[in-house]
Automatic annotation (TrEMBL):
One of its GO terms (cellular component) is plasma membrane. GO terms for biological process: electron transport chain. This is Ion-translocating oxidoreductase complex subunit B. [4Fe-4S] cluster 1 binds at residues 68, 71, 76, 93. GO terms for molecular function: 4 iron, 4 sulfur cluster binding; electron transfer activity; metal ion binding. It comes from Anaerocolumna cellulosilytica. It is found in: Cell membrane. The gene is rnfB. Its main location: membrane. The complex is composed of six subunits: RnfA, RnfB, RnfC, RnfD, RnfE and RnfG. Its EC number is 7.-.-.-.
Length: 295
């Protein structure tokens, strides 16, 4: 018998007649095809199964989820994968605190070791009242754009803070603010994620130990005479700090003083002797207000 049999016409509409036997055959065929597909998917699923690493999942849960990339990985997922695989240490996330590092180390069955807290610091003190400008800048209010304007921006000093707050925009922790033309970091809020460091076109921001109390707030490599012509608080490379330091912790290179934090004892003699007061003497724990007072 034909599967489709036209038995008559209702007006011009053809009517189909299918026997029970044919319905049964069709159902059996569909069932068989379904079973074959099911078996195929089951085998393929087993073959291509990606095993979930329990350690990776647990490590990821402890990581802060900022995806800032300060650890050197693409984001928190990538770092969790690297830690679980033993390719990164338990304390690799600079945003997480030492308690979190210990928890991650617990998952990995290792010790997180001691991590020294670091915070971002802006190496410029050339606020609006301390620096001269070459011209008025009416361009886009963005440091990277202003830095490529003629003369490396409107300020007389081409090394200093441009003050348009590109660093402020990238900080997810409200830890950096521009006050009187200069960016300041609130060390209590800073998580050392380094996003501001990557953003500053003049490379003015660096991580310094949280407990260090003395910093050189200048980045100019100009000779003293040229520094003085544009900024009343810049480093003039006079070596007074070098002579004052009993611990060999200050060096002047390319007309700029730099403190070796590993040698610095915070005795304060360099700050005392500095004629331009470019060395910031800050007690641990003081935050943005203290920095602002010093300007
Ligand atoms: S100031 Fe903000 S962006 Fe810069 S390191 Fe600190 S938390 Fe990160
Ligand atoms: S520190 Fe750098 S990014 Fe921040 S305001 Fe100054 S120039 Fe701009």
């Amino acid at each position: 018998m034909n599967l489709l049999e036209i038995v008559g016409n209702l007006g011009n509409v053809p009517v189909l007649s299918v026997s029970f036997q044919e319905v049964g055959i069709a159902a059996a065929l569909i069932g068989a095809v379904g079973a074959v597909i099911g078996i195929f998917l089951g085998v393929a699923g087993k073959k291509f199964e990606v095993e979930v690493d329990e350690k990776e999942v647990q490590v990821r849960e402890f990581l802060p989820g900022n995806n800032c990339g300060a650890c050197g990985y693409a984001g928190c997922d990538s770092l969790a994968q690297a830690i679980a695989a033993g390719q990164a240490p338990a304390n690799a996330c600079p945003v997480a605190n030492s308690a979190v590092h210990d928890q991650i180390a617990g998952v990995m069955g290792t010790s997180a070791g001691k991590t020294e807290k670091k915070v971002a610091f802006v190496k410029c003190a050339g606020s609006c009242d301390k620096t001269k400008v070459k011209y008025n800048y009416y361009g886009i209010q963005d440091c990277k754009k202003a830095a490529v304007a003629p003369g490396k921006g409107p300020k007389q000093c081409g090394y200093g803070c441009l003050g348009y707050g590109s660093c402020v925009k990238v900080c997810q922790f409200d830890a950096i603010h521009v006050i009187n033309g200069i960016a300041y970091v609130d060390k209590e809020k800073c998580t050392s994620c380094s996003m501001c460091i990557a953003e500053c076109p003049n490379n003015l921001i660096e991580l310094v130990p949280y407990n260090t109390g003395h910093f050189v707030r200048c980045s100019s490599n100009d000779k003293g005479k040229d520094v003085k012509a544009g900024c009343s608080i810049g480093c003039i490379g006079c070596m007074m700090c070098v002579k004052a330091c009993e611990f060999d912790a200050v060096k002047v290179t390319d007309n700029l003083a730099k403190i070796d934090y590993s040698k610095c004892t915070n005795c304060g003699k360099c700050a005392e002797k500095c004629p331009t007061k470019v060395i910031l003497s800050e007690l641990a724990g003081n935050a943005i207000k203290e920095q602002t007072k010093a300007v």
